[in-house]
From TrEMBL:
Residues 55-121 form the TNase-like domain. It comes from the Eukaryota. This is TNase-like domain-containing protein. InterPro entries: SNase_OB-fold_sf, Staphylococal_nuclease_OB-fold. It holds the Pfam family SNase. It comes from Micromonas commoda (strain RCC299 / NOUM17 / CCMP2709) (Picoplanktonic green alga).
């Protein structure tokens, strides 16, 4: 979500100061002269065969690399992300999917912070002197249920990918180059997109009508921003005034926008917006936007059935804890 939807809070500033103190840095972010050199091991959540692959599969919407930092080394050091959540200066951020490696650890770290009224969870103590609680922290009572709903959808996508029924699906944040190539070749593709609001100055935070000239006539289409700042990808409705366009926009508003599901699979022919070189899919019908990577529920069911039967065939010896 863009900067427009993320206010700077006092709790956020306290979290930044906690991190500097925790690492022995000065308040301007530089290492303190008397502090020992900080060494870290870097660990990626999604592992690929190459460094380039790891960077591509472990980046946020702005192209920044995401990784776990183990201060002092992985073997005996401290997972910095877990330390921040355990101290209560961040919730367990599952908005874009759970941690593949440390899910249980993050759950326990957040539970402990909540139970001990630490950081953002100690709001009743922290907001003394603040007129608005919202000045101190974001409204996590509203955000967390939304994040966990999104997490379930991402988890479904990961499972369908493992089962083999979503391996044809592109993700703008991961497959930027592949999407551009598919658009240049005008291939029919499926893309897993995120309709969460990005810009408060356009409809639903993601779409706007634009005028264009075709065959000497002025027409109005709709562009829907379905990618990210670092990985642009759009949907295009050729006739913004058609009845089918109204159905598409209503579906997005009711089911996918704001704090709705956000995530959807879009199927259609890709092409390139030549003025900016952005890959797009033309959406002519509401049926092109779905909740699953395949419209055939039997295919989804049987692929999953085969996958889980194979997994169940592996014998696991259970022992008491």
């Amino acid at each position: 979500m863009s900067k427009f939807y993320k206010p700077i809070t006092y709790g956020g500033k306290e979290a930044a100061e906690f991190l500097k103190d925790h690492l022995g840095f000065l308040h301007d972010g530089r290492p303190a002269p008397e502090s020992a050199r900080v060494s870290v091991d870097v660990e990626f959540d999604a592992v690929e065969d190459t460094i380039v692959g790891c960077r591509r599969h472990n980046q946020d919407n702005y192209g920044r690399v995401l990784a776990y930092l183990h201060v002092g080394g992985k073997a005996s050091g401290e997972n910095l992300s877990l330390a921040i959540v355990r101290a209560g200066f961040s919730p367990y951020h599952v908005k874009y999917g759970r941690s593949r490696l440390y899910h249980a650890d993050f759950l326990e770290a957040e539970r402990t912070a909540m139970a001990e009224d630490r950081g953002v969870w100690g709001l009743a103590h922290a907001v003394e002197g603040f007129f608005y609680p919202g000045d101190y922290t974001r409204d996590y009572s509203r955000l967390l249920p939304w994040w966990w709903m999104r997490e379930e959808i991402v988890q479904d996508f990961r499972r369908w990918e493992a089962e083999g029924v979503a391996r044809h699906v592109f993700v703008p944040r991961v497959h930027k180059d592949e999407l551009i190539a598919a658009a240049n070749d005008r291939k029919t593709i499926t893309v897993f997109v995120d309709f969460q609001p990005k810009n408060p100055y356009v409809d639903l935070g993601i779409m706007r009508d634009v005028e264009y000239i075709a065959a000497g006539q002025t027409k109005v289409g709709t562009v829907i921003y379905a990618g990210t700042k670092a990985h642009p990808f759009n949907l295009w409705i050729d006739n913004a005034r058609s009845s089918e366009a109204a159905k598409i926009k209503t579906l997005i508003e009711r089911r996918y926008s704001r704090t709705g599901r956000n995530y959807a699979y879009v199927h259609g022919k890709a092409f390139t917006y030549h003025k900016k070189g952005i890959p797009q899919i033309q959406v002519d019908f509401a049926d092109q936007i779905t909740d699953t990577p395949n419209k055939d529920p039997l295919k989804l069911h049987h692929s999953g059935e085969a996958y889980h039967l194979a997994a169940a065939s592996v014998k696991v010896k259970r022992v008491a804890a």
